[in-house]
Design brief:
Blueprint: E1 2-6, E2 10-17, E3 23-29, E4 34-39, E5 48-55, E6 63-69, E7 78-81, H1 88-115, H2 120-125, E8 136-142, E9 152-162, E10 165-174, E11 188-192, E12 199-204, E13 214-222, E14 232-237, E15 244-250
Parallel strand pairs: 1-7
Antiparallel strand pairs: 1-4, 2-5, 3-4, 5-6, 8-9, 9-10, 10-13, 11-14, 12-13, 14-15
Length: about 250
């Protein structure tokens, strides 16, 4: 059993637990700021679920999101949640900084675009194609439904595998007013349900994700055949921000 203790009142009906019906018990006391979770055997080890809690006092941030990971032997008995409120001016200043950073990233991407060579010749030169090697491709999903509180919606996912490399091509819709740019290699985590981690080599995002636009993101990693068995979760962190894009259920051709 895990208990969340929020040091602020919660909004009535503002606590959302993904796949709540698969828990043995979910108890919520909004006034006291208490949420107690007791999972059942219907949740397999390694499964990740989202808990969203909205605050009732009108301060910002208005809500908090937690990633719950099922483990067969370990559990956090009590989680203390403290919130440091921020003023509207602080958020506006952060948004301006994010916009400036996104514009700088876009300028660097445009500059890099002009010097990058593309095409089959590049694949042959990198020894990812040719001499009996081929590229395997599969479409993973269409229009993945976001979880509560998520503003990035994955519309299309294509998976590629060739010559000890794997790549995922994402087409993502941003519903937030703030632009979103992936942090880069250091902000990406690609891990299987069994704990196998792929070494990310590069991240390519031609343009920042702006509100209402669906744009492309490509992540490439090094992976041997025995490393790409099973199901993976791909997590992309935001450059200079807290928002994370999570793609679940990634499998390889």
């Amino acid at each position: 059993m895990t208990g969340f203790v929020f040091h602020a009142p919660l909004q009535r009906g503002g606590v959302l637990v993904e796949e709540r019906e698969r828990f043995r018990s979910v108890a919520v006391d909004e006034t006291a700021g208490l949420v107690t979770l007791l999972p059942s055997g219907a949740l397999p080890p390694g499964r990740e679920l989202i808990l969203t809690a909205r605050f009732a006092d009108g301060e910002v941030p208005e809500w908090a999101t937690f990633r719950l990971v099922v483990h067969p032997t370990r559990a956090e008995r009590q989680v203390e949640v403290y919130r440091q409120s921020r003023s509207a001016e602080s958020y506006q200043r952060g948004e301006r900084q994010q916009r400036e950073r996104a514009e700088q990233c876009e300028a660097r991407l445009v500059e890099a675009e002009g010097s990058r060579s593309w095409g089959i010749t590049s694949l042959l030169d990198a020894k990812l194609l040719g001499m009996g090697k081929s590229v395997a491709v599969q479409q993973l999903v269409q229009d993945m439904t976001p979880y509560p509180g998520e503003t990035l919606r994955v519309r299309y996912v294509w998976i590629y595998r060739a010559g000890g490399r794997v790549a995922v091509e994402l087409w993502v819709l941003n519903t937030d007013t703030r632009p979103w740019t992936v942090e880069g290699v250091e902000g990406v985590e690609w891990v299987s349900a069994e704990g196998t981690r792929l070494r990310v080599l590069r991240v390519w995002q031609p343009q920042p994700l702006t509100q209402g636009d669906t744009r492309q993101i490509v992540v490439e990693a090094e992976a041997l055949t025995e490393q790409v068995q099973g199901t993976f979760v791909l997590k992309l962190g935001e450059a200079g921000g807290p928002r994370t894009l999570i793609v679940r259920g990634v499998t390889f051709p």
